[in-house]
């Protein structure tokens, strides 16, 4: 059974953490049997499963439903669930209410998007028994404020802010820090500065673990896949083989290569 202490030990022993999104029971069983450590019920399900053009329309009820499905199919992996847009930004009490519902649905940890302005919420949840993963860099729920899905932390001031945000979340009790779409040199600096594990998506090879959106890495998402993703189905004859290839590539430090990094 993968727990917070397993992840912490993996960081200390420099063993890479393999994480994938997962939204349902059958794939949950398959993914963990192929060695995926963390199953993320990502609000990317709004795009991959529900057909929306962003994650914004995903509701708390949707997240609870898919978390329940994944939890029924999973017995070993750590289950991480996103708090959807609008369910946690208003106040820390609102965040606790949303987080307690996804935890009751079977999650072991919740993920929230945002830097320094979410640190108090991280602390509030952590002190009340809810492990938190802080999602920094490109936070897709803010796509309209960013003006698109763009690389973050590129200039010195933005990089400094991201590093400070990561440290502040860790001090507040975050169990994981996830960085999306940031230069690998910045993700390396953050990973070295933190005691808790980091997970990267489009953040280079130096993070303690990697995550991809399942539908992107299986090549079944009809929309445009990002530069940092890779189709692991190519050359494989089953979904299980593709998952295994991804897990091995992460564990052996072969993914992401420069072509999938910034
Ligand atoms: O929702 C999701 O799938 C995510 C990943 C992009 C990390 O948050």
- Discrete helix count: 11
- Biggest β-sheet: count, sense, barrel? 8 strands, parallel, barrel
How does CATH name the architecture? Answer: Alpha-Beta Barrel
- Please tell me the overall pLDDT: 97
Please give the share of residues in helix. 40-55%
Concise structural overview:
With 262 residues, this protein is α/β, with parallel strands linked by helices. It has one domain (4-260): TIM Barrel.
Structure description:
It contains eleven helices and eight strands. Helix 5 (92-104) packs across helix 6 (119-127), helix 6 runs parallel beside helix 8 (156-171) and helix 8 runs parallel beside helix 9. The termini are far apart. Strands 1-2-3-4-5-6-7-8 form an eight-stranded parallel β-barrel, surrounded by eight helices. The model has no long low-confidence stretch (mean pLDDT 97). The protein is α/β, with parallel strands linked by helices and 262 residues long. It has helices at residues 4-12, 25-33, 45-48, 60-73, 92-104, 119-127, 143-146, 156-171, 184-193, 214-217, 239-251, and strands spanning 17-21, 38-41, 78-82, 109-113, 132-137, 176-180, 198-201, 209-212. The chain has one domain (4-260): Phosphoenolpyruvate-binding domains (TIM Barrel). Helix content is 40%, strand content 15%. It is globular, with a radius of gyration of 17 Å. 3-methyl-2-oxobutanoic acid binds next to strand 6. Residues 21, 40, 42-44, 82, 178, 180, 201, 211, 213 line the site of 3-methyl-2-oxobutanoic acid.
């Amino acid at each position: 059974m993968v727990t917070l202490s397993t992840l912490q030990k993996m960081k200390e022993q420099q063993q890479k953490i393999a994480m994938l999104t997962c939204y349902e029971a059958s794939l949950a069983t398959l993914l963990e049997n192929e060695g995926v450590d963390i199953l993320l019920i990502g609000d990317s399900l709004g795009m991959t499963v529900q057909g929306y053009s962003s994650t914004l329309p995903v509701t708390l009820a949707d997240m609870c439903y898919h978390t329940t499905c994944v939890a029924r199919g999973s017995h070993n992996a750590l289950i991480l669930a996103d708090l959807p847009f609008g369910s946690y930004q208003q106040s820390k009490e609102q965040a606790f209410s949303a987080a307690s519902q996804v935890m009751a649905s079977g999650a072991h940890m919740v993920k929230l998007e945002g830097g320094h302005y979410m640190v108090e919420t991280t602390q509030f949840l952590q002190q009340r028994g809810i492990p938190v993963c802080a999602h920094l860099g490109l936070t897709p729920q803010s796509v309209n404020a960013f003006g698109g899905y763009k690389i973050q932390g590129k200039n010195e001031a933005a990089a400094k802010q991201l590093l400070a945000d990561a440290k502040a979340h860790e001090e507040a009790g975050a169990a994981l820090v996830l960085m999306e779409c940031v230069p690998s040199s910045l993700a390396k600096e953050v990973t070295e500065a933190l005691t808790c594990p980091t997970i990267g998506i489009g953040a280079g090879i130096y993070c303690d673990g990697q995550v991809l959106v399942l539908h992107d890495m299986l090549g079944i998402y009809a929309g445009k896949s990002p530069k940092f993703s890779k189709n692991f189905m190519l050359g494989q004859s089953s979904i299980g083989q593709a998952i295994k290839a991804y897990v091995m590539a992460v564990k052996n430090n072969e993914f992401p290569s420069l072509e999938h990094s910034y």
